[in-house]
Design a protein that fits this description.
The protein is of the alpha/beta class. It contains nine helices and eleven strands. It has a seven-stranded mixed beta sheet with strand order 7-6-5-8-9-11-10. The protein has a four-stranded mixed beta sheet with strand order 1-4-3-2. 38% of the residues are buried. It binds S-adenosylmethionine (SAM).
Length: 301
Amino acid sequence: MIKYPDQERELCLLEMKSLFGKELTHTYLFSSRDIDPSRSPYIKVRITLLHTASSLEELVQILVDEKITCNDFKFERFKVEEGQLGYATWIESVTELGKVIQGEVDMKNPSVQFGLTLIDGLWLFGTYEKNENPWEQHNLKPYTNSNSLDTRVARALVNIAVGQQLQTRLVDPCCGIGTVVLEALSLHIPVTGYEISWIITEQAKVNVSFLGYDNCISRMDIQEVTEKYDVAILDLPYGLFAHITHSQQQDIITAARRITEKLVILTFSDMDEDIASAGFSIVERCTVNKGKFVRFVRVCS
Ligand SMILES: C[S@@+](CC[C@H](N)C(=O)[O-])C[C@H]1O[C@@H](n2cnc3c(N)ncnc32)[C@H](O)[C@@H]1O
């Protein structure tokens, strides 16, 4: 089950495509990929399907035949916008199913949570897991900046950058106080951050250590980076809070081409021509709105 704020719709669609390899066309999607529901800021709930049936009676019979045994279980209610299971029918249905599951119900401390819904005439029954929203903890970091990314956006960018490949070597070459780096660390992705400003580098290091991770941030101009990476997330410095010229921005994009195979870049204006001139091909694009600002996201190879 997927949910996103309107201003992050395009980012969510891109993230789902990267994680599940398919377009999101409803507020839910079916996938055989094992993606942890806490991985994305936009996944609300995952139901790991155990059985499907074309009627409740059929589903009840399946559970009887399977002799499903489970102690301390509970049915969790969740809403699917396009679903057809109103509250009254849901209560009746889970009562029927509960009767044939062998074991005790525990409403307070269940060891297993089940989910039940009805979509397009198909009854779906499985284990229920909700997103634990781990990135919310990252908002407690000691330092943040006026140009820092929203943690949700940073997490989605990381997912867009690495997709299913959690072993991808990731770099944030202009990492600021480390918003992107922290999301990658919490997903156990090997990540490095570089930052030109001494003071901001120190703040990023404090943030990383505050959240219990080993340091992976260095003070360095992107022009001096010699290491090569599979993918970079570049939140391009812009002239709103810092003095940076267009030609310096172009130099940063060109330097990124030298150190990475794949690039996810965020810019404050449409810089497609500069991205292409640096030798990148744009393969995906979207925008993210933040208040009155629009940020341009480009995925490049
Ligand atoms: C838009 S901010 C990044 C914000 C970051 N994503 C965050 O959430 O905190 C861009 C950062 O790039 C840094 N920067 C500017 N020029 C740089 C360069 N040549 N090499 C490395 N970092 C640079 C700036 O000091 C600034 O902190």
